[in-house]
Amino acid sequence: RNCNMSDERTRKGQKPVVTLAEALGVLETCWGFDRGAFTEIKLLESYDDCNFFVEAGGCRYLLKCYNGVDSDNPSIIEGQTAMMDLLSRNGVQTSRTIKCTQTGEDIAWPKLTMFDKSTKRCAARLCFWVDGKSLVGRATPSILVDAGALLGKVHQIFDAQAFDHPGLHRYHQWDQTNTGDLTAFTSSVLNEQRRRLVEGVIDRFKREVLSVQDGLRRSALQADFNDANIIVMESGALGVIDYGDVVNGWLVSDVAIAAAYASVSSYGQAHPLAAAALMVHGFAREFPLTELEKQLLPLLATCRLVTSVVIGAFSYQQQPDCAYLLLHAQPAWASLEAFTADHIQDDLRELFLLACNPSSTTDAVLEMATKAQAKLV
User: Fold this and answer.
1) 149, 283 in Cβ contact below 8 A?
2) Given 28, 62, 217, 321, which residue has the most CB atoms within 10 angstroms?
3) What are phi and psi of 157, to 5 degrees?
C-alpha cells in the first residue's frame, strides 16, 4: 500500500501544466496531426490530469495527459483501456482510444512540465469525443433512474465477462475500502464542527463496514459515476466517460458513489435524498444487491461525500488557485449534513431499502424521499 498522504501530495505536485501550444505539439508528434487541421482546442477542468477538447478535420477528440503518479504505474492506464474497450464492445456509449501513430500503442509518452515545475515523461491518451452533453445542470428524476440503470448494465457486463485487470488492484485513496485512511487528511477541514462531522462518519465506517467487509462482493468499478461523467445523447440515451478512478473494490461502492454524486446534482441540490434513492432505484432494476449491501448502502454513500469534501479541502490547500477543486464542496457539505442527520437515519435506511426493491415504483420512492426530506426542514 502506498502512503496515502504522500501519494495525494505527489498527485498535486505532478499534475501536468500543458499550454495549448504544447498540446498541439503532442498531437502533431504522437498522432500525426497537421497543425492546419485544427479548428478548436481548449483546456478542460480536471482534478489531477490535464485534459483538452480538440476539433480537427471535422472530428472531435479528447486529449488526456496523465499525472505523474498514474504515469509511473502504466498497468493502471492499461486497466482503464481494458474497461473502456470492454464496455464499448458491449454497446455502452463511451470513450474509444486512438492508437499513437508514432508507436502504434494506446499511450504516448511526451515530456511535460508539472505543477511543481519539474519535467517528466507522462502518459498521454487520445480518444474520440463522446458526443452529447454532460448531465451537469440537466438532472431530473427520470434521467437519474436511467443513469442508475446504465450503471447496473455496466455491472451486468462486468459480471458476465468476469472482468478484471491487474491495474485495478491498486491503492487509491478514493477507493472506499480506504475510507479509514482519510484521518490523515481531516486536519485540512478547518471548520471544527465540520471536521467532527467527517471524523464521526469515518469512525462509523471503521465500526460498521470493516467488521463485515468479508461478506461484500468485489468487482471492477468505474468508481466516479457523477453528473460530469454521464453523457446525455441527442437521442436521450446515456453514455459514460472518465475511468481515472477505476479499481477493483466492493461492488456496492459503485452505486454508493453514484448515489452520493446524484445528491449533489442540479436536481439533488434541492432533493438530495430523492436524487440518491432514484439512482439506486435504477441500478437495482438491472443489478440486484445483497441484503448486506443494501444495509450498508446509505453509510457508504455518506462515506463518498466525506471523501469528496476532505480530499477536496486537502487538494485546495495544495493548489489554492484551482477553483475546480471546490466545485462540489458546498453541495456536498449540504448533502452530508442531510445524510448524517440523526433524526432521519431510520427513514434513510427505509428509503434505500425501498429503492433497492425492483418491484417498487419511482413514484413510491419519490413519495418516501419527500417525507424524509420534509423532516430536515
Assistant:
1) yes
2) 62
3) -65, -50
| 251-262 and 272-286 helices, crossing angle to 10° | 140
Residues 6+ apart with CB under 8 A from 240: 87, 92, 93, 94, 150, 151, 154, 222, 225, 229, 230, 231
For 343, counting Cβ atoms within 10 Å of its Cβ (0-12 exposed, 13-18 middle, 19+ buried), the class is exposed
Q: How many residues does the chain have?
A: 377
In 3D, which of 357, 364, 370 has the Cα closest to residue 291?
357
Cα–Cα distance for residue pair 206/210, rounded to 1 Å: 5
Whole-angstrom distance, CA of residue 13 vs CA of residue 196 = 28
Interstrand relation of 124-128 and 133-134 (parallel, antiparallel or unpaired): unpaired
Tell me the pLDDT tens digit for each residue of 144-195. 999 999 999 999 999 999 999 999 999 999 999 999 999 999 999 999 999 9
Pairing of strands 111-113, 96-98: unpaired
Q: Among 205, 230, 228, 181, which Cα is nearest to 46's? A: 228
Q: Give the pLDDT mean for 11-33.
A: 92
Whether the CB-CB separation of 159 and 102 falls below 8 Å is answered with: no
> Cβ(292)–Cβ(214) under 8 Å?
no
Q: How many C-beta atoms surround the C-beta of residue 91 within 10 A?
A: 9
Q: Report the alpha-carbon distance of residue 279 to residue 274 in Å, rounded.
A: 9
CB of 277 closer than 8 Å to CB of 140 = no
pLDDT tens-digit series, residues 147-160:
999 999 999 999 99
Rounded CA-CA distance 265/271 in Å is 9
Report yes or no: 30 and 100 within 8 Å, Cβ to Cβ.
yes
Average pLDDT, the chain: 94
If you ran DSSP here, which 8-state letter would residue 132 be given? Answer: S
- Closest to 125 in 3D by CA, of 87, 93, 97, 84: 97
Max CA-CA distance within the chain?
62
Q: What is the DSSP secondary structure assignment for residue 335, as one 8-state letter?
A: H
CA distance 252 to 243: 18
* Three-state DSSP string of 138-154: CCCHHHHHHHHHHHHHH
